[in-house]
Amino acid sequence: MSFRFLLVVNTAGGLVVDAVTQWDAGLRDAGMRRQLASRALVLFVAEQTPTMLLPNGGALLGHAFSKDGSRIDDARRFPSFEDAAQTRAHLMKHCWGPYLLVQPDDEHGGITVMREPSPHSDVACFYTLRDGKGFATSDISLPERLGLYRRQVDWDAIRHRLAFPQLKTAHTALAGVHELLPGSALHLKEDHATTRLLWSPWEFVTREARHRDSDEAAADVRSAVSTATKALAGIDRSILLELSGGLDSSIVGVCLRGASTPTVCTSLVTTVPGADERTYAVQIADQLGVELHTGTLHLDSARFDFGVHPQCMTPRVGVLQHAVDEVMLAAAARHGTESFFSGGGGDTIFCALDTAAPAADAIRERGPFAGMAAVRDLATLHQCTLLKAGRLTLRKMRRARYVDRAPDGLFLAPGISVPPTEAHPWSTAPQNALPGDRERIRSLATCQAYRDSLARGESLTMRMPLLAQPAVEACLRTPSWMWIAGGRNRAIARMAFADLLPPDILHRRSKGTFMSYLGAVYRRNRGPMRDFLLQGRLQQEDLLDTKAIAEFMRHDIPEGGHAFTRVFDLCIVENWVRHQP
């Protein structure tokens, strides 16, 4: 990962020269150099991390682009604002990219750190502050190296993770360490650390911001996705494009046409049926004029007890993610590529909802007669009767506006104490929010957890252009009912790239999955996984229902639907805590 920094702070201005000199020496062999220093802060940045010192004394780390995709890399052309807040507002409104802003506020005291809004980028920021002393960093090993932090499991966070496996919050699973979430600013002053949301997805789904016409929406989506993809490709020397064969990665692929960055295409297959998408993926590779390479996920290489990257701050990396990481990292090493490009996040931003919410939105916004077109589209999309689609739409309209997620208690000890759910900053919806907007913005918040599961992004840069700020904003402006027009999911994305996508991909409705692979892995590893859980640290902390797990895992073939995937999820957490002190 090229993006690395460490900001050490003493808000009382108590940093001494001798300590800073020692930190210089301690970080030198880690490739870190000092960029800013005062009695209140010292900022170290990796040599590979682009850094631009701004006219007002702040530092912009990473890459920032203007709306048209041109890179902002000259501080002399960056606007100079008297008020530090104006700099933050300018970046949020007029710029985008994988960047982090650090601003010392000498006039009012304190330090501000701002993270760009993308749910997935090469930027990460973790922080802690106690008695006015602390740090913010992209890499927890850096403060550990200097003796500023000692790693310890936060068992309350582990209980929360077990009960709400998909929920993303600012809490990490390490004691005392929080994450600065996308689109937020952290202000460190005296002995307080406060955060403020500066970018909200709700700004882009209002009636005033919403696209009125599908042609306009398709043009906006095409421009935003193409611009983001090409701009991100322009800052990398070489790319490994992960082609799944589906619509999302194919769109990223066609947007790379004409890019000057050398590109290698790789598709994954398994040794069991269900995931071979090479028939589709090769068509995109052919458009790029390159060979399609294949990576194979073998059953005997699937592990649940693998080593955990030190940068995994929350247990997210599982059997499938680890196996994919290993194959993709090996492919990158073989081809000499420095970054991964993926279509990850497409389900979310292209509004692939599996509920009746889009039709409910259309009726609420356009009235019952115009909204009936969306009900017909819903029936066609899900291949059900018009009566059933209408009934589900009415039920969605009558349902409570917001329902908290219920904890997942499967295989957890009865009566386990679970900390209250922490509201994600994007979860506060306007009173009149549409059901579909609630669902897709909730999904957008969940995409932030997806970043945690891709450990290969800690070794090489992981790019997801579909989750770049311009693409997210353009897709949010497109109302949910437009995405199911004609009974097709992702309808606006298909419309936007219809002239570039091969017909087989443009019109396909199905996609391969890895469920057969996971089922085979479960059957192969059932006994060792059972022992792993029943003799592990989670069991020692009395967090598991050992009798229920033992009974369920007596069976060779997974039962209870996909309940066996819950076993994998428990193994994720168990494996992570075993690799902590």
TrEMBL record:
InterPro entries: Asn_synthase (IPR001962), ASN_synthetase/amidase (IPR051786), Rossmann-like_a/b/a_fold (IPR014729)
GO MF: asparagine synthase (glutamine-hydrolyzing) activity
Pathway: Amino-acid biosynthesis; L-asparagine biosynthesis; L-asparagine from L-aspartate (L-Gln route): step 1/1
Gene3D superfamilies: HUPs (3.40.50.620)
Lineage: Bacteria, Pseudomonadati, Pseudomonadota, Gammaproteobacteria, Lysobacterales
E.C. designation(s): 6.3.5.4
Sequence ranges assigned to domain Asparagine synthetase in this UniProt record: 221-577
Protein name, as recorded: asparagine synthase (glutamine-hydrolyzing)
Keyword entries, A-Z: Ligase
Catalytic activity: L-aspartate + L-glutamine + ATP + H2O = L-asparagine + L-glutamate + AMP + diphosphate + H(+)
The organism of origin for this protein: Luteimonas terrae
EC primary class: ligase
